[in-house]
User: Fold this.
Amino acid sequence: MLSELLQGTDTGAVLIIQDSCSYSGQHLLKSFISAALNKEEPVHVLGFDVSEEELKDGLTASTQRLHFHSAYTDPLGWTNRSAFTVHQFCVEELTHLLKQTSHPKPVTLVIDSLSWILRHVSPPAVCKTLQQLKKGGAVRAVIGLLHADMHQSGTVGSVCHLATSVITVAPGTKGDEAVAKITKRSKSGKVTQDEEIFSIKGDFSVTVVSKTSHAGHRQTEAEEQQTDPTANLTFNIRLSDTEREAKEKLALPFVFSKEKKTALLQSGPGSGRILYEPDANDDYDQEDPDDDLDV
Amino acid sequence: MFTELNSILNATPDSFTQGEFILVSDRQSDASFLIHHFLSFYLRARCKVCFLGLVQSFSHYSAISQRLGVSLTQAREKGQLIFLEGLKESLSILIPQETTTGSQAMDFLRDPTVGLQRLYEFVRSSVSSDVGGEEGVEEWGPPVLLVDDVSVLLSLGVSAGAVLDFSHYCRATVCSQLQGNIVMLVRCHGEEAEDDGSDEGSEWLLKGLTHQCSLTLHVQGLPTGYCRDIHGQVEVCWRRRRGDGQHTQKKLFQYKVHDKGASFFAPGTSSAVL
Assistant:
């Protein structure tokens, strides 16, 4: 599903990449930018977290159609040198910004990162802007990076609720592999979820290593089948067919089978019989030893 | 500076990665020995150092640097070191006198809600060298900002969001624009609680700074308890890598602090044990 998302999205799509301190979603975001540039689509990036050089570093696709709006150098207007401040994150300003460069093809807007904006603009305002971007015609798709461990779960939940696809990345078991949990909502309302293990190469192309989330289980089963305890021994503990039959026929001494039960219950000829006549001395009552209570 | 740490970080005073944001953090431990290392390292590398010493006096750092072979007084006189003595400056704000002019850096003490813009402006004026300086002024290397420590700002009433904004602006100016380095110390107390992001305390600040930085050194005590010969463990994590290898690399070391330095070794290989 990750490859499908990379290949192309329909109009009005909002894709959110959620990451945490243990694994940065920056590289996956760059993969999405690279994929969009390779399809010759214009990409506008609102850069808060990284500088332009750091974002363009390593992107082999032609960066002619990549427009970087730097909110990195001065996002709050402290030095009066800002190209874009965090308070300009609203539909009117964004549409104005995008109209400055005209394109024949619809634009993909990449926001790096939404966490920066959420720290200064209230979550309802951010959600409203995202919703308006989704419905309006200015952009074809919005891709945002969100640091999930920096916000309350309610905020993260609200923003992701707006999204048409959410990818949560976490570090994988092997060195350069990572696990992506993907939730995709289609226009008809159907929700599909998937978990994939992927790795990103130097040119920001994504390789999906495995698709199932039970890859771990399958590996252990295969391993169990492979180990054969009767191999590589100095003595022979294998059974031939006749030996196996004889073993299965053997009745174990203390197993209480049906034949033994009937033999015990029915006394055979010549076995002793017990005759008993009740004796007064046998009738000893602990609570009435002298047998004189009239109860 | 600690030679073993230099080889771990692949850095020497003659060649080190520029544009790095190094985050030193500790939990229920004391990582300030790493600040002394970086201070003497960058002074030896002939960088222009701006040191925001918010928790200790100048003489404290001077005495320890003397043992590491660097003279802070000389560096300050030569103009290589710009030292903001937070404790002294804060006195001049809390007890204003007519004669005190001082920098506006600690102005946030007057009103913590204003934020750290003034402190940032102090940093910016310290690190940017004036082009075409006078004769006789030595040329220093790339600028370095050292902050000891950032979590004390939280105790002084500054919000964690304002601290993150400050560190962002410092990073934009020092690392990206001037290709210098930043080293910040952040201290956490208590267990690694699942805050849910609602309580903007030192844990949240640590997460925010971790997202911004390129190298973290996290100092903790040994999980098994106190040991006389091993003072704790350091987890080094390289976050942003350019070009080769997209994955973050983590390494764990144990350390012991001596009188004139610290030694680092792989877990289980302490000289007391072997």
Residues 83 and 182 of chain A are 34 Å apart (CA to CA). The first helix of chain A runs from residue 2 to 7. Chain A touches chain B through 36 residues (CB under 8 Å).
